[in-house]
Design goal:
single chain, about 70 residues, mainly alpha, 2 helices
Length: about 70
């Protein structure tokens, strides 16, 4: 995952947190839910990319051994 991708995913997570907080402050459950969904989606994407990076590193180590 490139630095730009990581930054974009982190920005999406933060935007979700802000939207969730705005929904909470405005007593708008729909906005709060939308923000929470965006935050969860961004975190899931980050976790998937971390798993992919770890698999790539493991593959590289295995290739280095042979």
């Amino acid at each position: 995952m490139s630095f730009a991708d990581k930054a974009r995913e982190k920005a999406d997570e933060v935007a979700g947190k802000i939207k969730k907080a705005a929904g909470d402050a405005a007593d708008d459950p729909g906005l709060e839910r939308e923000g929470r969904d965006e935050e969860i989606k961004a975190k899931a994407k980050q976790a998937g990319e971390q798993l992919k990076d770890a698999a790539d590193k493991a593959r590289e180590r295995m290739n280095d051994r042979h």
